[in-house]
Write a structure and sequence with these properties.
By secondary structure, the chain is mainly alpha-helical. It has a 3-stranded antiparallel β-sheet, with no helix packed on it. The chain has a 3-stranded antiparallel β-sheet with strand order 6-10-9, with no helix packed on it. The protein contains 11 helices and 12 strands. A hairpin with a 5-residue loop joins β2 and β3.
């Protein structure tokens, strides 16, 4: 307990450092139990009021071996922390990621790489700056996400390789006796089909880099401006804010604002929610090839459809000839197995691919994409198959140099 000091307006508690009060000359006890919640307005305050102890203006808040003069307890409004100005999540990782400015995204990514180390490459920072595309072979190949596409892509490979394996293991000798050109042509078609599938799957479909990535790669902003026709459009890629007055003018030219990538979207480009990227002249996302089909790989996709139709027809016909006219005949049990496991599934897949091929042939003749026909929203004109592919805007091997201050 406190005892009165010889000095006026000063009292000492258990030998502690003297505590000065405005007029205090009396001893008192203080309840230091903190309130359960500062937001409970019905709870009585923990400290005695001025009416209970006249002359005491500011009671202490805590004891830590020595008394300190502190300010009154904060109000409930002051105790609520202010909203942070920057988030700690990366783009695409949560709903708050879109609140970051492009320069803030760059600063966060820069913290993950040592300043004195070798500069990272685009394939290293691209997953952190938006997009679910995957890089292969040191950034030289780009393919789609694995979350959904893997099982469909495995089905594509199984539909190609399983019938072909049976064809070459069981039917080649019989067909060679009829004409050696039949199995040779089938081999060529198989090679072409596999090559066009790989080209479709591993080629950049026309990904448009986000503002944050353009800040990190030297010359990329100018390259994107040429590819998207934005040379005369002043874009604020540092803050990434939408200019409403500017968008009114651009929408008349077919441009749109992508609410996912937070950037200006050129005509006929669309955002793919599977890849989480904007794609130039986006036709559709095809999980069977594990990639988007856009401006830069649409030709490969059409050649893949044509080659798989020819391959399926050749394999289907060859197995049918072997089953009906093979020397010595084929047992009924083997015919039933081949029919149920190979012929029927191959025929169904072939019919589906033929229908898809006819659909894209109609689109090519009309100069339209799948998204434009299905949605009815058309923001541009021009050929699809025979138009210029343009350079790849995403090069996984390019070095990344973070801007000063990042």
């Amino acid at each position: 307990m406190a005892e009165e000091s010889s000095r006026p307006n000063t009292f000492i508690i258990d030998g502690a450092v003297p505590l000065r009060s405005a007029v205090a000359t009396e001893s008192f006890e203080v309840d230091l139990t903190p309130p359960d919640s500062i937001q409970d307005n019905n709870r009585q305050p923990a400290f005695p009021s001025d009416m209970d102890h006249p002359g005491v203006s500011t009671p202490p808040q805590r004891l830590s071996g020595a008394f300190e003069e502190v300010s009154p307890p904060p109000s409930p409004e002051a105790s609520v922390p202010s909203r942070p100005t920057s988030m700690t999540t990366f783009p695409g990782s949560g709903s708050n990621a879109s609140e970051l400015r492009p320069i803030d995204e760059v600063r966060q990514v820069a913290l993950e790489f040592p300043r004195d180390g070798p500069p990272p490459r685009v394939c290293d920072v691209m997953p952190k700056l938006g997009g679910r595309t995957r890089f292969r072979f040191g950034g030289r190949c780009i393919t789609g996400p694995s979350r959904v596409d893997t099982k469909f892509n495995l089905f594509t490979w199984a539909a190609i390789l399983a019938p072909s394996a049976f064809y070459f293991s069981e039917c080649t000798e019989f067909l060679w006796n009829i004409s050696p050109y039949i199995p040779i042509a089938t081999v060529v078609l198989l090679i072409a089909c596999v090559c066009f599938l790989l080209l479709t799957s591993c080629t950049d479909p026309g990904i448009i880099p986000r503002y944050s990535l353009r800040l990190c790669v030297e010359g990329l902003e100018e390259q994107v401006a040429v590819a998207t026709g934005c040379q005369d459009i002043p874009l604020d890629i540092v803050s990434g804010t939408r200019n409403e007055q500017q968008m009114v003018t651009l929408e008349g030219r077919g441009y749109r604002w992508c609410a996912f990538c937070k950037m200006v979207q050129p005509p006929r480009a669309k955002h793919c929610r599977d890849c989480d990227c904007c794609i130039l002249r986006n036709d559709h996302h095809c999980p069977f090839v594990n990639n988007c089909v856009g401006q830069r790989n649409y030709l490969y996709f059409c050649l893949f459809l044509a080659s798989i139709c020819c391959l399926g027809t050749s394999v289907f016909t060859g197995i049918g000839l072997w089953a009906n006219a093979a020397p010595g005949g084929v047992s009924s049990s083997l015919k039933t197995t081949v029919l149920s496991v190979i012929v029927v599934p191959t025929g169904l897949v072939l019919l589906a691919v033929l229908a898809l091929s006819l659909w894209h042939l109609a689109l090519i003749l009309r100069g339209r994409t799948t998204r434009e026909v299905l949605t009815g929203r058309i923001y541009g004109e021009g050929a699809t198959l025979f138009s210029e592919r343009g350079p790849a805007l995403i090069d996984g091997t390019r070095e990344v140099h973070f801007p000063g201050g990042a």
